[in-house]
Amino acid sequence: MKHILNVLLLLAILPIFSQNKLEGKVVDSNSQLPIQRANIYFPQLEKGTSTKDNGSFSISNIPNGTHKVIVSYLGYETISINVNFPFSEEFNIEMISSAIEMEGIIVSTPFHKLQSENVMKVEQKKISDLNAEGAINLTNGISNFTGVESISTGLGIGKPVIRGLSANRVLVYTQGVRLENQQYGDEHGLGLNSAGIESIEVIKGPASLLYGSDALGGVLYLNPEKFAQSNITNADFSANYFSNTQGYNSNAGIKHSTNNFKFLFRGSTAQHTDYKTRDYHVINTRFLEKDFKAGLGYQITNFKTELRYNVNHSNIGIPEEIGEQSTIVTPLEPFQEITNHVMSSKSTFFFNDSKLNLNFGLTYNDRKEFEEHHHDEHEEDDDHDDEEEEHDDEEHDEHEEEDEEVALHMKLKTFNYDIKYHLPELGKFETIVGIQGLTQSNTNYGEELLIPNANVNDIGFFATSHIHFNNVDIQLGARYDNRNISVDSGLDKNFNSFNGAIGIRTNLSDNFIARINLATGFRAPNLAELTSDGVHHGTNRYEIGNENLKSEQNFQTDIALEYQTEHVEFFANGFYNLINDYIFLSPNGNEIDQSPVFLYLQDNAKLYGGEFGFHLHPHPLDWLHFESSFETVIGKQNNDEFLPLIPANSWTNILRGEFEFGSIKKGYAFIKYKSTSSQDKVSTFETTTDGYGLLSAGFGGSFNLFNNELNVSISGTNLTNNTYIHHLSRLKTDGIFNIGRNIKIGITYNL
Fold first, then answer.
1. I want to staple 256 with a disulfide (CB 3.0 to 4.6 A). Which of 233, 387, 436, 557 is the partner?
2. What is the CATH number of the domain that holds 26?
3. Contact (Cβ atoms closer than 8 angstroms) between residue 532 and residue 184
């Protein structure tokens, strides 16, 4: 009780000190005319406003210290300025018009800088842009990032792949906390919905310095939607229809903020029938999804906190065959029923020249898998068998829930913490020290045992600094981690690792930026790799774990070059990734229970490749954009055998126009062609995949309806209805094609 009273007293005292206000005006640098609705935002404070009709703005309750201010507006260069408070002058900004798309703040790296200022190369995209290109769901949209693909099982299950690494080698963050949902398996999706997510950031390469184990290959960072600006209420509704699956998704949200309190709520639902190709329908690719998000925030001058909660419930069919189309959306057996809860708390204490971040998260993943019934196996004669099979078929078609039995049922509970202290700036040094960790329990309740009951405990200590010189920025850091895995059977394993990173960003000229990053990373073996001993029905193989596996340890060199003028942008990113003790599955030629036996083995490996591209928006046709990008990755073991699940080379070209016509605002139209090469650099138990090309197109815009904004979009993917198989599709072994032509129609109404 004494501690609670002390906290309440602190919160009561904090507002008395260090209250500052920032006032000013934003104008066009050439015409000196005011810019209305320009965004003024403090990323560290998560506080902002928009300019009024005369270009003026005012933001109050700003704590003492140095804070970054971001000024942005579509059609102008984004401005980033550090302001030291107390600040009593008028803050007037002249914005320079530009055809270059405005930058966003990078949240996944600790110093919260614009991408142009960042030492580490991070790619960011808005969810609205991914949806405009025809994305059916979150994992489908992620594949629009260069260097990122997805291991898919139909449409409902997708797993991100960054530069050839996936599963536990890619860490996913949502609501500021790490997502834990049995991500070791290819057939396990994210359990997240894109509604209520504002943008996605991708760190390509080892990020163990910032996130510890499981960030060996990179990080997928999902930024939740921001709260409303002070004393403003926002509400919106959106709906999308998909022709191929006769499916839809819809969501509605409301948010409101006062000077101190803020809240938001968002609910969404989606359902899809079996997808079709040009030649047939793929049975049981149907899925249902419901999602709810809520947030509550409180902010005073020297303190801010927010609580967020997300629950996602999905019923996802596991496809096994082709057949006639069905308009039924309820999955047949086998199917997954997954409920994923994510609760997060994020708080910041601001001191005169430093701050303390306290982030806590609780994730609860409840996974059930239902298999087809085979009641006939206990019968005495063939006639009775036939009767039972016929009866089973009727039950299968009717999908009577009362007769279903859970084959696999696991509950994974994870509590994680992330505490960072931003030290006072010392000259050119910005420094952060922190501690991160988690405690996790996995418990089985079903008939089958995929991985055993076990507990995992992580703890890591790190320090990182950003050093800013006139023409060079340097970021460096070091970290120590310990992971303990304790299995109920008696197995107890400890894994330790030291890791470090150093990066340099420099301006080779006024328009030419170079980045060089050197980093180490590690990944402790997961429970499946250590303890598996049985048939994995999702992959139809008998897997045998190896309790003597070591941690994977890697070293990556990453070079990024960017050239940017008002009308031309060019980038080239190259990487070379060495991984010691790379863990992989390999067949030994034997069979158990009529399934091929696969063993978990280790060997040193290497991956190398990169992403290259350019963006042209020629003068005077600033509304016209041509973007082209190429991505490639090669993965090999030490013996020169290729690694599995390496995506094929691909080349993407987009022609896009932006316009305003009459009452139509924010208008756009695009044509996209993605050419994917054949993949013949495959592991010993993979088959090659033919190349293909996919054509997409779309258009959209907004206009006023009853004094509110209505956005309308129409897009089509695989417009030529090609039959193709993606190399990372888990249906590839059965020769089942990916989805055919799909037309998406979407509306969003903002209140």
1. 233
2. 2.60.40.1120
3. no
Domain limits at 33? Answer: 15-98
Rounded to whole angstroms, the Cα distance separating 608 from 204 reads 12
What's the confidence (pLDDT) of residue 187? 64
Looking at residue 507, which CATH number applies to its domain? Answer: 2.40.170.20
**Cα four-point dihedral sign 389, 391, 392, 393:** positive
Q: How many domains does the chain have?
A: 3
Counting as low any pLDDT under 70, the low residues of the chain are 1-18, 99-102, 184-187, 372-404, 536-540
From the number of C-beta atoms within 10 Å of its C-beta (0-12, 13-18, 19+), residue 427 rates as: exposed
The verdict on 518 and 581 lying in the same domain is yes
Residue 167 phi, psi (nearest 5) = 55, -130
In a domain, 470, yes or no: yes
Which of 227, 202, 180 lies closest to 48 in space, CA to CA? 227
> CB-based contacts of 245: which residues, under 8 Å, 6+ apart?
136, 155, 272, 273, 274, 275, 276, 285, 286, 739, 742
Residue-level pLDDT at 668: 92
One domain, residues 473 and 591 = yes
Task: Name 657's bridge partners.
Answer: 624, 669
Identify whether residues 237 and 298 lie together within a single domain. yes
Q: Confirm whether 114 is domain-assigned.
A: no
**Cα–Cα nearest to 266, from 228, 294, 229, 306:** 294
- Residues 527/487, Cβ–Cβ less than 8 Å: yes
* Residue of 132, 209, 191, 213 lying closest to 313 (CA atoms): 191
CA atoms within a 13 Å half-sphere pointing along the CA-CB vector of 699: 8
109 CB neighbour count, 10 Å cutoff: 22
- Coil, strand, or helix at residue 227? coil
Domain assignment present for 459:
yes
Give the integer Cα–Cα distance in Å for 76 and 101: 8
537 Cβ contact partners less than 8 Å away, ≥ 6 residues apart: 334, 371, 407, 448
H or E element at residue 582: strand 568-592
- Which structure tokens are listed for 263? 């809240």
Cα–Cα distance, 44 to 304 (Å, whole number)? 10
Nearest Cα residue to 421 out of 407, 402, 400, 435: 435
CA–CA distances in Å: residue 140 to residues 103, 153, 277, 356, 743: 24, 11, 17, 36, 15
Same domain? 311 vs 294: yes
Q: Give the residue carrying structure tokens 């000259």.
A: 427
184-194: per-residue pLDDT in tens? 665 677 888 99
| Predicted pLDDT of residue 404 | 58
CA distance 232 to 229: 6
Task: Note the Cα 747 to chain centre separation in Å.
Answer: 24
Q: What is the pLDDT of residue 525?
A: 92
Structure confidence at residue 400 (pLDDT): 42
Amino acid sitting at position 373:
H
Element (H, E) at 60: strand 56-62
At residue 566, the pLDDT reads: 80
Cα separation, 335 vs 286, whole angstroms: 10
- Total-model pTM: 0.88
Model confidence pLDDT, tens digit, residues 136-166: 888 888 888 888 998 888 888 888 899 999 8
Q: Give pLDDT, residue 402.
A: 39
